[in-house]
Amino acid sequence: MKHRVAIVQRDIRWLDTEHNLQALEQMLGGVEADVVVLSEMFPTGFATDPREVADRGSVVEWMVALARKMDSAIVGSVAVVVGEEYRNRM
Predict the structure, then answer these.
(1) Helix 58-70 × helix 17-27 angle, to 10°
(2) What is the largest CA-CA distance in the chain?
(3) Closest by alpha carbon to 12, among 1, 3, 4, 20?
(4) Where are the domains of the chain?
(5) pTM over 0.85
(6) Quick check: helix, strand or coil at residue 14?
(7) CA 4 to chain centre
(8) 8-state DSSP, 40
(9) Which of 39, 47, 52, 77 is a good FRET partner for 10, with 20 to 30 A between their CA atoms?
(10) What is the pLDDT along the chain (90 residues), one digit of tens a residue?
């Protein structure tokens, strides 16, 4: 069995989630892959203060919607809020 894997590396606009997600959608528009691998902290870059950028669901929802649209599995890490703490989750 063969799988098509798309590994995505692009310049991230620092702390600009909306721009980064839109840019990724455009970049992936014509890609056909079974698995799409996004870079670590792809929506924001590495922020020293996660309170500024931690996802409360919208980035994960974006990933799910894009995965359905592309019929692909999508992986990448995102800073998320877990209770009162912050985690870097893939």
Answers:
(1) 10
(2) 43
(3) 20
(4) 5-89
(5) yes
(6) coil
(7) 18
(8) T
(9) 52
(10) 999 999 999 999 999 999 999 999 999 999 999 999 999 999 999 888 888 889 988 999 999 999 999 999 999 999 999 999 999 999
